[in-house]
Fold this sequence. Notes:
With 273 residues, the protein is of the alpha/beta class. It contains 9 helices and 15 strands. The chain is elongated and about 65 Å long. The two termini are 30 Å apart.
Amino acid sequence: MKKKIAIQGVHGCFHEQAARLYYGDDIDVLECLNFEDLFVGLERKEAEGAVMAIENTVAGGLLPNYALLHKYGKQIKGEVFLRIQQNLMALPGQRIEDIREVHSHYMAIAQTREFFKQFPHIRLIESEDTAKSAADIAREGRMHTGAIASVLAAELFGLEVLQESIETHKQNFTRFLIVDDRIEVVENDINKSSICFTIPHKKGRLSQILSIFAFYDLNLTKIQSLPIPGKEWQYFFYVDLKFDDYAHYREAMNAVSPLVEDVKIMGEYKSCC
Length: 273
């Protein structure tokens, strides 16, 4: 029986590509309109696991998704990095010169505007989703209309890729988190942790915490702060730590515990790179 995985977006989107990269191709996807619906689907047991984007090398972090992880109390069980390759596609038998308009998500359009400067006759139109744009063209048989989407979308909906990799920045990667209660990560495999905490308003407190992480040879790969609703000028700090020695990591967590408040381990898992 195929595993049901919740994704943000529709069949053929980059979230599905990431899900296939982690779980393999033998999955079904639960399409979710927004990221909170991922967690709702898990709560209702409509899906066994979820794949959720958390940061991009071009656009930065998806800050609200940290808050969703904290709100629903789900544990991170893994991660996957996917190169985001934007492709121009249309119904078979057309050339780029035949295309009059191209539809896609605003982010995909922003990442490919430089490419379209050489085709001033093409009008760029924002839509709600990259893969849905491709699906709509296929379903409605739209000639002279293109979409910017993944190669997976082209394969699924029978479109022809007119030009591969049209994104301006080729080193464009998105990091996706795996949220799946059924996955058990054995201690020997754990080399990364995602934690969150608050700190009291005391001079130098954050510096002390970071010094402890450094002392125990932990690599701080990400630190992000988000305001706490209803608490003026107070913040949650979201931190990703990489390490070679799990025991040192636990010692570091014990050492920082007296310095922080509301500390929560959001996941201990194996880094994908």
